[in-house]
Amino acid sequence: MMDILGLDKIKKISDNTDLESDVSGLEMIRPDDDGINITGLDSVRTIFFNDFPKLSTFAMELMSLVSRAKELDTELRQYGSERHRYEFAPVIPLSDVRDFEQRHSISLPVSYVEFLTQVGNGGAGPDFGLFSLEELEFHNFIVHSNRSVSHSMAKCESDFRTFSFTTNGRPVMLDACLTEQKWDSACLELLKLDGEKRAPEYERERRALYNGVLQIVDTDSTFCPVLICEGNMRGEVSEFSHDLDMPRYLGKTFEDYIIDYFEDVIEKFDHK
User: Fold this and answer.
1) Domain extents for the chain?
2) What count of other Cβ atoms lies within 10 Å of the Cβ of residue 247?
3) Do the beta carbons of residue 147 and residue 153 sit within 8 Å?
4) Residue 193 class from Cβ within 10 Å (0-12 exposed, 13-18 middle, 19+ buried)?
5) Is CATH 3.40.1580.10 correct for 57-268?
6) What secondary structure letter does DSSP report for 123?
7) Are residues 41 and 25 in contact, defined by beta-carbon separation less than 8 angstroms?
C-alpha cells in the first residue's frame, strides 16, 4: 500500500513495484534499496528508476554556465542580476507547454521547450531575466477592452481575454524577406489609422506586426528580444522595437542567444 500526500499531480506509479513508500517532503526523488520517499513536490509524473528524462546537451551546458556566472558575479553587478540572481524558476511539465501552444495556435521551437521543461520556467537571462510561461502569456497575448495591457494591469482587471497567436491568418512579418521598405510601408499604413482615431482597427493592425513572434525577455529597453516561432526564421531571436523601428536580426537561435549571453557574462567577471 502506498500513501501519497501533498502532491498536485501524479500521472503514473510503476506497476511492478511492491515497495512501501512514504510520500511527504523531499525536493528530489532519491530511490534506494529501502523504498521511495518523496516530500514537497508539486507534481510527480512517474515514480520508478528509469523514468526521469535525460537532460539535453543544451540544458546541461546552460545550467553549467549560469552556475559559473553566479560564482563569479557574487555582488550581482551584471545589469538585471539583482532581480533574477542567476536562479531559474522550477521547470514545468511538457503538458503545460502543449496546453499553451494549443491555446494560442503556436508551436514553440524545440530548444525553448527544452529550456522550460528541463532548465526552468523563466529566470536567469539577459536584462531582468527570461519570462515564465505565465508572464509570456500576459506580455504577449492579454488584451483588455480591445487593447493591449501590461502584465500588472491585467492582474487587476477581471474582463480580459487572450489574443490568438496570429491575426486574421496573416503571414509572419519578421522573416528573411523583410526589407526596410516593406517595414516602413506597413508602419506608415498603421500611423494613418492612428491619425484617423480608428482604435480597434489600429490595434488589430499593430498586433499583425507581431505575428509569429513572442517577447521572451523582461526588459526596459526600447528593443525587446523576441523569439520567432513561425516562418523561414523559426527558432531565431530578433529584437523588436515598440517604437516601430526596423527590427534587428541577431542571426542566432534561442539556444545560441542564451548560451552566448552567459559566456559573455563569465568572460566579463572572470579575471583569473
Assistant:
1) 3-47, 57-268
2) 20
3) no
4) middle
5) yes
6) B
7) no
